[in-house]
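Cross-posting from the chemistry board since nobody answered there.

I work mostly on the small-molecule side, so proteins are not my area. We synthesized coenzyme A and want a rough idea of how it might sit in this target. Sequence and SMILES are below. Is it possible to get a predicted 3D structure of the two together?
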Amino acid sequence: MQQGQAAILETERLRLVDFTAAHLGDFAAMNADPDVMAFFPARLSREKSAVMLHRLIAHREQHGFSLFALHLKSDHRFVGFTGLLRVDFEAHFTPAVEIGWRLPKFAWGQGLGPEAARACLAHGFGKIGLTDIVSFTAAINQRSIRVMEKIGMQHDTADDFDHPNLAADDPLCHHVLYRLRSVE
Ligand SMILES: CC(C)(COP(=O)(O)OP(=O)(O)OC[C@H]1O[C@@H](n2cnc3c(N)ncnc32)[C@H](O)[C@@H]1OP(=O)(O)O)[C@@H](O)C(=O)NCCC(=O)NCCS
């Protein structure tokens, strides 16, 4: 985290800040870990992480929201991302805004993902003014599905889908879709 960078959101244990170029080292290290990336088609090289970071910043400038970098309040350590993005492929539920998360392995299992996600949902339904937020993952990614359940998202198996960017015989192809609607 850059010195003095303001938190956009705060939770009990976390500061959620805008991504900047200064995050590249920590971001790339997380995206290069095979365990973290087990349910994605590939790990990311430092160059691909730099491209993704650039896109996240551009998304924020264009749409007013994006993924947030997570930092522990206790020691400022980078512990991944959670946030909102427009879904960048076509499917039966698009156009839509998704909530997503990725933490480095040392930070798993402490409830930090759901803690950050709850703050992002409140931000999305509040300041951003969204009425619906979705989340999806490979049907075999039980840890991520658990986060969706813990933050109160709803699942209808009729919504599940095959990811259009993956081959039909890829074990990651079949995806679950969870939804949450704002309480009007
Ligand atoms: C998915 C992810 C964000 C969960 O974040 P988290 O802060 O660890 O979430 P939680 O601590 O609430 O743990 C979620 C569930 O995973 C389980 N879990 C956590 N760490 C685990 C580990 N190392 N091994 C096995 N299970 C684990 C927990 O037991 C928990 O289930 P429970 O609430 O029934 O006990 C994190 O595992 C991650 O970054 N995974 C890799 C990236 C990824 O797959 N992102 C989602 C893509 S759509």
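Reply from a structural biologist on the board:
Welcome over. Reading the output above for you: Residues 36, 39, 100-103, 108-114, 137, 141, 143-144, 146-147, 150 surround coenzyme A (CB under 6 Å). The radius of gyration is 16 Å. Happy to explain the token format if needed.
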